[in-house]
Amino acid sequence: MYSKEHKREIKTLFYTSFGKYMSKNNASTGKIKWLNYPTQVKDIYFRISLETKYAEVYIDLQHQDNSLRNLFYDQFLELKTVFKNTLGPDWHWNREQENEYGKKCARITTTLNEVNLYNKDTWAETFQFFEKHLLNLDVFWSEFKDLFKDLEN
Question: Which of 39, 66, 89, 134 is most buried, taking the most CB atoms under 10 A from its CB?
Answer without folding.
Answer: 134
